[in-house]
Fold these 4 entries.
Entry 1:
Amino acid sequence: MGCGWLGLPLAKSFLDEGYTVHGSTTSEKKLSILKKEGIQPFLISLSEEGPKGSVLHFLKDVDSIIINVPPKLRGGNRENYVEKIRGLYNAIKASSVQKIVFVSSTSVYGDIDGEVTEDTIPRPSTESGRQLLVTEDIFGNDSELQTTIVRFGGLIGPNRHPVTMLSGRTRLANGAAPINLIHLDDCINILKNIVEQGWWNEVFNAVYPDHPPKAKYYSMEAKKRGIPVPDYSKDAAQKGKKVLSGSLILVKKYRFNTSIHN
């Protein structure tokens, strides 16, 4: 559900291993792109009044569904993300699907300082984080579903890196705070492992296990790209959260494949 920057290559990766894949998009123009890739395309949009489009056909004969629809709460957007996903949840309950992967974010932990594990109580400080946390519970509190929640850090990969937005900016705060990023390739591998290995009824933090300070990391990445280096205010205190992927690394023995320094 959601064939965008992450969902489309994820779908193609499943196809490469012989799976039949349904993929949703909100764009009519993208239907032909999905079909060309071998994905069974469905035009679906989620709204607070319920899903619009062929959601029942999308869910038919499906073993597992990966929900990859982030909140649109930046800028002037003020959608009720919880109700949008609740409508999808109701459609899933009316279908035969029982295995759910819900793609969430480390933003549910808010502004906690220090190390964060899956046992840390979330304290979201943004509207996006708050709505994601409530939505996690819609699926996670349903004992009839096998739901796994993945809290990704900041996503990086082809044509996507935070340094491009930070380049040239001045007097940025929290330069000593640790970064929490993950590459697209590891996102795909983790989601595939959940489905293929049967890692159900779990909560996973998914962040690359290297957390250099923001100022040092983004300066280095800017220099690699030949773009202006972001300027951070001088603050000695290392505040901010360091998100640990303990359940993936220590319990599931997952090995991250793609460095955030590539």
Entry 2:
Amino acid sequence: MKSRKIKMGLLPVMAALVCLTACGPEKKDPKYIEPGTQQAGQVTQQPEPVVEAWSYQAVATDTTNGLPKSVVSDYGVLIDVEKGEILAAQKLKKRMNPASMTKILTVLVAAEHVDMDHLEDTVTVSQEATDYSYSNGCSNTGYEVDEQVTVQDLFYGTILPSGADSAYTLAVYVAGSHEAFVDMMNEKLEEMGLSETTHFTNCVGLYDEDHYSTVYDMAVIMKAASDNEFCRKVLSARTYVTTQTKEHKEGLTVSNWFLRRIEDKDTHGEVLCAKTGFVNESGSCAASLAADGTGREYLCVTAGSTSSWRCIYDHVDIYDAFLPVVEPMDAETGTE
């Protein structure tokens, strides 16, 4: 009987809950479908953003040539970017040390992880950065310890004067440490499908047995960097003046000497972007992007030349041999 009383006592409570449910505000079933919005049985889902991995490949063909005999460099490649065809090559995929051509990937990785709205933010050049640069005999931008420079200055300082002080400071700014940034560089190489033939141990291009690439891989890296709007701007600058600081009241004027020295040479076009490199083990090397008279673009990478000037002339001779001669348009007749 006691059990029955308890059950009977629950009846008014249950009745009240039923009433609240029946008489309260109408609530839609989560699965309810408004008439005319979609067919029954369909579930609306927000599409996930599609992120396409960057990729580029160029292939040798039956018409791929060797390098011109005048070229001194041991390694070299010329690629028609649009066609994805290798026009000329020598030791195309043989391992070599890329020296400061490494910095092309340095600025690319940094650009992909830096907010472009913060390029004017200031960064302190550390004792560690200047010591790393000077102790390894690297090229320098010319910053002093504790100098406050902008993030943008670091990008231009990395490429134009090939400043190891800029590259090291940029790496630490992006990743927190040089070692962590190098890991990011190698992750990028894996993403690009180059990790089996290219591996970096530092962000500046110092010689190391485990720091290596090929002229083909460096051409692909230059292609990726030139596809990045900001990197292309940096790689195409002839000169740049850094921000004024208390240490350098007029800023530092830095130059891309490869671009400045090749601009008056006959390449049947215009060299748009470039980055040089040198260590004893690699000789003088360079990667460049040029356009012929029609705007078609070409990638050229060489390594193992005997001097910086000879490296420039190797690029001139390669472009001169393979870029088409385009006659200037007659302004009056509209014909060549």
Entry 3:
Amino acid sequence: MNRKDLYLAALSLTAVQTLMAQEQQRPNVIVFYADDLGYGDLQCYGGKNVPTPNIDRLAAEGCRFDNAFAVAATSTPSRYSLLTGQYAWRKSGTDIARGDAGMIIRPEQYTMADMFKNEGYVTAAFGKWHLGLGDKTGTQDWNAPLAMGLSDIGFDYSYIMAATADRVPCVFIENGRVANWDPSAPIEVSYERPFPCEPTGKEHPELCYNQQSDFGHNQAIVNGIGRIGYMKGGGRALWKDEHLADSIIGHAIGFMRQHRQQPFFMYLATNDIHVPRFPNERFRGKSNMGVRGDVIAQLDWSLGQVMQALRELGLDNNTLIIFSSDNGPVVNDGYKDRAAELLNGHRPAGPLRGNKYSAFEGGTHVPAIVWWPGHVERGSVSKALVSQIDLMASLGQLLNARLPKGAAPDSFKAWDTWMGKDHTDRPWVVEEAANHTLSLRTGKWKYISPCEHPYKIMKNEQIETGYDDKPQLYDLTKDQHEDHNLADKKPAVVRELQEQLQRVMNHADQ
């Protein structure tokens, strides 16, 4: 080899080393998304009866947010908004999705995963998806590769549940195919009618030996638990609810090990605390609050496993974890698991009024913790008003990413705020209830839009909806529980917030 070749080889080696050093400086990013976890469910937020040492440690080593909001009070719209930076109420078909829903995020949309992938990250999604698969609702062939999946919206790898554990199909989907597909038990799914000779929870409740239905959840029976929707087949591909957390976390840690030499982005969405609550035997009795408490302990274990793996792989100082929940808590959501009876003084929404589904604060005011050793002040607490809608643009700031025109249209850049360095409130937060009622919240005021045909209580779930046919206004600096409607006394404030909400809806103040 002559001098010129040696020089060029040295330059190439230097370039490779420089690139590797740059990649090592960019943090791995994990969005750890819990399901139905309330503002008051964790010890670090004042929760009782359930030990959560790993989540508490995350807060002790990072920044805990006291005024963080999911975008919606239900799962599908919150997840859609988080991953696209667009309010779900701008797009039809973003209500709670069936298990056989077609893709809600379409390939032409630019996602958080696209953003990371275009910046050189390897990307993955694990656990609860609930944003549809395939091109059209009800047309999937679950016995073949799906025509459309997460690879079309920026994810290099995925190991997901099509919807959530109380909906069929009760199988994991790995890279667009049913994991462990059993050719001897082809899968059929219907949300319209039962399959002949397949027992249902409604007709055969005695077969629901692991979890009994209270309301709904009495169609297909899988693993001794009634579900929403009808399903036939599956064989060895069917999941066991008691192993869901192990399977999700095991695959996530496997991905981390495989890609420890390159920056990775993981959307890690556990099924805990969603019904049916059927934790692994290891967690039974870990709380004095029954199975709802036990699955919170299981969630805490899941995070602990991820943190332990990061330490073992030497990645803990170069990984950013954003921990939060998709919406507020619900206690009775369709199964006879004695969750309400066994609260024992525990308040899942803490001091807030309302729960999942609700227009009141308990529907969208959620725990949020950001952890990045050496970059986020240990044990810090932020009272800044923040919304998950801003995570896409804010993480784009971290990456110095260039987003295509029109991408993440509702997402504000708030990186310093999410790092706990800037405590300035977001000017306003928009919240969406289950019936599409929109609220606008500032640091002081909460305005809830009037709606037609309001009902005050979800009778089965025993949840206050917050719906009314008149405007509502609450001063949250004095009335955190939203007990005193001041709309009649503060018409100017109502008008100001109504106009601001209308500007948001019209894209006039984005």
Entry 4:
Amino acid sequence: MGRTTEGKLYVVGRKRLYYLRYTVNGKDCRVRLLGLDGKPITTASEAKKAAARLLHPLKETNRAEQMRMLQSAIQGAEESAEQAQALLVNSKASLLHGWELFMSCQSRPASCKRFPMDEIPRHSTPGNYAGYYRQFSGWMHDKHPEILLLSGVTPEIAGEYTCYLESLKISPGTFNKVIQFFKMFYSVLLDDEKILCKNPFLKINRKEQESNSRAPLSMEQIAALIQNAEGELRLLIALGYFTGLRFGDCCTLLWREVDLVRRVIERIPRKTKHTRKDSKESIVKVGIPDFLYRMLAEIPENCRKGYVLPRFGADYDRGADANLSGIIIKHFQRCGIRTHREGTGVKTILDENGKPVIDVKTGKTKKTGKRAIVEIGFHSLRYSYISHNAEKGTPQAVIQRNAGHASPAMTEHYIRTSDDAARRYANVLQLPMAAPDVIEAKNVETEPERAELHRLADTLSIDQIKKILANI
């Protein structure tokens, strides 16, 4: 007598594809049902017919024949079961809610576990990550509106997005940060089994980065920057140089962090505020020198509330930091300080008469040039604070603490030795013996006649020199 085995039909996905679930020798099997034409079945009546065809071998009385006929069906069922499971999981991972899904993963980075999803600071690592994802999801909506699931992003689409990033002319460093985020984003979702697919960004290569260390400014340049500034801008530059605080920390410095009696500033830097467990270890304490003290003391006591720089602080917190950076760069340039690397930066195209060329289609001035590479900016004040302190003999441990660096190596990265310091410290090494006689070299640039005489003496013949001397 033949055995009767029944299966269970169910539907998966928006396209309502039919699957069959049944048991063979205690093993649970699932298979996507296909019609005689090999296409997926989407109607109940066709699904029942296909299920009957598939279950027919189970009704054979001969067990050997039953197993032979089922061998290929079981293998196909296992593959289909995995596909069905993948479809079920992936259907819950939409592009629209991708960020929320990522923030729910247990394997997400520690930096993303420090804040509730609706309280992420804009100027933070997870804040940057959220921005990268918003940009990507917006691009997907515009370029591939038909793709609604994260699993639908293919390596080809990831390559398209890479080209889009390159068209924005962002720096190699920023490009690498974005790509690294999406590699990590998909890796986290895969580790937590929120999606079942391949990482589409896995084979996107990083870009090589050029070293672009900002140089310290000279004392004369810093003096010019402070003297030629007014109002909050003048105090901002003084804070940047005399405290070594970063741009965001100077803009948002609070009066409660300034103690004019003890003459110290105590602040937890924004960059490390959420990265260290012990808040006391994060506090940076910087002494207030006389010059900065007088500037701060000039502000009336009844105005010493909230931000030390009210306008800059409010603008920075509302996201206008790019505009503030532009103000800083223009001030540097007005003081005769070249801020961009030579040959970079967008320039206006001029005609033969020196007038700007207008684009006929857009009506705007035509411009050309490479992305501006900033070599000197507000951060150069921080470099200067560290380098000048090192040259004056401030212990490196104190500089490291004041700068909020986690290691001496980071402080070393900032230190630059000036020509004066190099010459001054050169005489530290002395030998216990008489020094040889030294003929002091003359400055050929200030004595061109003497330089020309030396050149003639080296090139003229002896007879020519004798004739010249005889006529003197």
